[in-house]
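User: Can you predict the 3D structure of Amino acid ABC transporter substrate-binding protein? Sequence below.
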Amino acid sequence: MKKLSLTILMLLTVVLVAACGNNTKNAAGNNTTAESSAAPTAEASAPAEQNSLDAIKASGKLRIGTEGTYAPFTFHDASGKLTGFDVEIAEEVAKRLGVKAEFFETQWDGIFAGMDAKRFDVIFNEVSITDERKVKYDFSDPYIVSKAVLIVGEKNEDIKTFADLKGKKAGQSLTSNLSDIARENGAELVVTDGFNQAIDLLTSGRIDATVNDGLSYLDLKKQKPDVKIKVVDEIAEGSQSAAVFLKGNDELVAAVSEALTAMKSDGTYLKISEKYFGADVSK
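Assistant: Sure. Here are the predicted structure tokens for Amino acid ABC transporter substrate-binding protein:
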């Protein structure tokens, strides 16, 4: 019995020594099965975050917010195709970024909400650069300069200057900076979806005037020379318009600005500008 007990005791000692030997190796950092199956740290496993430009190039498309009802900047031609100055500029920018332009048509009064919801990456819609907008959004280099004009019916003799808007009905998009001019001059604002609706209300006599874009007016008169409207006043200082982005997309903003600069240098911009306005509208 003593021999049996001694034998058992010796066997237990061998097992314990072997176990301790394994623990010592583990503590020393030798590769073991347990160590090799351990999960990697979060720092080691997390992929590098893509910036906005890289993400767009990876997706192969640039998502663009635009109205589609604002000629000649963004509208549908007789065949129903989306076209216009801003549309062609945006398509060329996307091409130079190496991706496809994908347009999302949105009414003007909801276009910034669409940007906030990240439905698109950029807005091309003749958006004026203002201090208020710069608080929340970033802009590319400006690519168009326009002047606000006061438009009335052809036979209207009561309104000759912006000051004459006091107490008059002016058709305006509420989130447009043009509506501020009408409001500051005492006009009663009638909400419209955009330039075309404002002109329809004006020609039908439901409003007295609209403060709108001079370039849009010129295009309308070119397309419909018999339309019964006229310009009676304009703001001397032109406003600059640019592509709009959510803040934090510095690489994308820079890439779009670089594309616009290259388009102006090689004559592509001028070709598009003359097609719609007969002049270089970047000055």
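The two ends are 109 Å apart (CA to CA). Residues 85 and 250 are 25 Å apart (CA to CA).
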